[in-house]
Amino acid sequence: MRISSDELAVFLGGEVVAGKGDAFVTGFASLKEALPGDLSFFYDLRYREQLRETLASAVLVPPELEEFPEGVVCIRVEKPSDSFERVVDRFGFHAAPFNIGVHPSAVIDESVIFDAATVSVGPNAVVAAGAELGEGVEIGAGAYVGRGAVIGKGSKLFANATVHEGCLIGERVILHSGVVIGADGFGYEFKDGRHRKVRQAGLVQIDNDVEIGAGTTVDRARFGRTWIGEGTKIDNLVQIGHNVVIGKHCIIVACCAIAGSARVGDYVVMAAQCGVAGHVTVGSGVTLGGRSGVTKDIPAGRAMYLGYPALPAGEEKRRLAGINRLSKLSARVKALEEE
Fold first, then answer.
1. For residue range 180-197, what is the model confidence (pLDDT) as tens digits?
2. Looking at the structure, do residues 51 and 115 belong to the same domain, yes or no?
3. Which residue range is the domain that position 191 belongs to?
C-alpha cells in the first residue's frame, strides 16, 4: 500500500482539513500503535489524548472536530470508523483466494458426492466414504470430513479442521483451524469400581452462517443432536458439550464452556470464560458478563447477569459493594466493642 492523503480523501469522499495532502500512507493502525506512514482514525472523545500524541501520518476525523494535532494530516469524513474499515478492506491483507481443484495428495473416497469443478480440497485433506460436499465448499490442508458428513454450499474448513462422522454442516459455515465437530460427548457411568464409557450415538448439526473459532470443540450428542442455530458466532477455545442446543445469532466469546444438555436461547451473548451447567436453560436475549457461572435456569429477556452463581447485574453489584464494605464495618464493630 502506498497512497497519498489527497487520493485517500477522494477514495473516501472526504476532505483534507489539516496537514499536507501529498503525504503518503503505507499502512494502518490504531492511534496508540500507529507509526509514521500509518493511517489511523478518531471518533471518540475519550481518545483525545491519543490523537494529540499519535505518530500516525494521517488520521480520519469526524466533521465536528475543530482542533487538529500538529504534523498530522487530518481527513474529514462522516464516519471515521466505517471509512477506516473501507481502507483496510481495499488495501489490507486478504486470505488466499478460492481456487477450484483437488490437490493430488488429498484422499477422497470414490463414494463422496461432490462436483470437482466447484470445490477446493487442499493438500493431505481426507474426505471419507459417503460424505457430501456442496457447491463452493473449501476443505483446507489436512482437514478431515468423516463418513456420511454433509458440508453445505459455500462452507469453509480451514487447515486441520475436523468434522466427524454423520455431522451436518449448513451453508456458508466457517470452521477455523483446529475446530473439532462431533468428537464423543463426555459420558461415563461408574460401575464395578470403574468409569464405563457410554456410547455417544448422536450427531452435531450446525445451521447456516455459523462461524466457529480456532480450537473450539462441539461434542457429538449421546442421542439425537447437538445443535447450533443459524448465524451464531463462536470464538476460539470454546467447549460445547453433548446435546447442547444453542439458538440463532448468539455470540459466545473465548474460553466459555457449556455443559451437556444445556439450552441457550436466541440472541444470547456470553462474554469470555462463562460457564453454563448441564441441563439448565439460558433464555433468549440474555447477556452473561465475563466469568459468569450459570447454575440454574435464567428466563428470557434483555437482561445482564454477572457473577457466580449468575445473578441479575444490579443484584450482583450490590452484593459486591456490600462485600467491599465488610472491612470497614468490621472495624466499626471492633471499635464499638472496645468502648
1. 999 999 999 999 999 999
2. no
3. 101-316
